[in-house]
Amino acid sequence: MENSKQSKTVFVLEGGAMRGLYSAGVLDVFMQNGITTDAIYGVSAGALFGINFKSKQIGRAIRYNLKYAHEKNYMGLYSLITTGNIMNEKFCFDRIVNELDKFDFDTFNASPIDFYAVVTNVETGKAEHIKIIDSRAQLEVLRASGSMPFVSKIVEFEGSKYLDGAISDPIPLQKALDEGYEKIVVVLTRPENYAKHKENLPYNFVYRKYPNFVECAKKQFEVYNQTLELIKKCENDGRIIVLRPSQNLKIARVEKNLDKLKAIYNLGVSDCTSKLDEIKKYLQQEKSGQVTL
Q: Packing angle between helix 258-274 and helix 276-284, nearest 10 degrees?
């Protein structure tokens, strides 16, 4: 007997630059096993790699990252020096998506999954959770979500100025709870017991024109750690299910070592595979505690 009532499901995807390949591994396993969702909240790399779930492109994230890791125009110091962006805008958001490893804009746009990219409004210092309805027209929102401070230019879109969503809402679990999602899968890119420490970065100098952003950035570590506490509480209460790296793999934000890129992706695959039955049971379970058959 099939229960007609279905709980609303959401995936919450943390960022973390190349650590985000862990989430890509998790999402590929989900796709291979027919696990879907009503919505996704993606932050930074969580948004940039998470879009491949809605476009149904298994393996795309790891494929192009391995292929172009050593391409000077992809990501790194050369791009930062020559363009002002550590992620080369032309190469990443034009050549790759339109020519080299085409993104399926049509499948993404036709999918019923609600996809939200988290960005930080530089002028207000607040998080915005922007629904991506037309992935081609809103590609700049996705770029903004992954535009790390100090190594990226501010992205302007529809009259607003944005940077990395991880500054204001690094793991948008509270947003998912506020929106009423009943089944929440949180994919983290840091291992258990990780905590963020205060960093003395020159936000005051570089972003002095944007005092609200400076205040937000200074509190980032507190917001992050408070969110980890919320995650732990919800996880212990059985309200959410969490996937996090089972090993503490050392990987740089702009990692060039192919073995390390493969390792973090493969860890996402193996961690998800080992927890697959638990995830399926959780997503099928109704509030009454009965499993839908």
A: 50
